[in-house]
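Lab notebook page, bench 4
Experiment: in silico fold of construct C2
Operator: M.H.
Input chain length: 387 residues
Purpose: comparison with the prior construct
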Amino acid sequence: MKKLRFGIIALLTATLFSLLLCSCGSGPSGTVVDYGDAEAFEEALNRGENLDDKTLMFTVTELHPDSLLGFNVCGGEHLNFISNQNPDLKVGDTVGVKATDITNILGYWAIKYEKIDNPIIGENTIVSSAQKANVSENQEQVDKKEAPEDSSVVTEEETTAPEPTNTETETIEKEAEKEVETTTEDNQEQPPLEIVDSNIVVFTNYSGSPAVSSYIAFKNNTDHCIGVNSPRMDYQDNDGKLIATDQFANCIPQVAKPGQVFYLYSYHFDIANVDTSNGLNYVADGETFEANNYYEIDISDVSFKTGGAMGVSIIGRGTNNTNINAYGEPGAVFYDSTNKVVGFCYGLEGFDAGQTKSFEIYGDMMSKDYDPSIVDHVEVFMQGNNY
């Protein structure tokens, strides 16, 4: 079973995305960086080292100007350098930066940074083993060029290479086109889970206390079904300090098929005793796993109504077309006429093998201030498992 630890930060305020201003010391010939390549920097991050305020050089491998977090400059395997402005870089550039804030997102590293001028590798710069091997190879080539010529070596007469034929030229061009296509595909590689939507709402609940609802929507970009163990929503202030955690967060649907979107949400969480004076941000947490023991429950005759005690109620029929008795987990997402998410609901139903039966689930809106009449349509999901 594959597990992927993830923490996603979606911000209530824009201040968390502002860059911290730090100064870098530099000598007359340039700034000596702490890490000479992206691989060495990522290896240190994966070992759990704190690399805030450390400097590095890396080669730009991809550019994503419109990512959810900002202008994303990719380097190495899982490094994403995030800024609010276009850094005026192109793929293939070598750049020096100072990391000002580092967050792990779905196994990828999101790094806020400052560019530094004239980055150079010094005696104490840490480089990856691959970089060391490359440096050694380059030095060997330099040594060979600088070595005195051996007069005993017989130099062959220079010959002119024959011009390639038309067939050979076409073959070379086709191979070059294939290489470009492969490079383009590599540059478009997507993370296993992609954030496609998020929102947070703070309101006064029915008992008069402040409360919060939030969700983050992920798209499953893998080729297998994904579920989340122990989903929860952590709330933190603008300095990243944990100020509350909702251990009863949930996912709809419970399992996301390849290409499907699922929602991890926290609902009507009481924050009466939570200090939100320094901001309120939300972090979805949990462990993803490859879901192999989940079964689709076919849904039919779905309808909904609003205005009841719980705001929205949904009825329908579910059919278990497998030969396994399963616990069905119906869940629904409420949308307004603009496709904005305005609520969720969730339930449990047992379905014997081959059984068709009715179900009813009901829930409230994301905020007490939302009128249930704004619900325009709902999306219902149901899977069963044999636990």
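Observations: The mean pLDDT is 80. Residues 193-290 form a domain with the Immunoglobulin-like fold (CATH 2.60.40.10).
Next step: discuss at group meeting.
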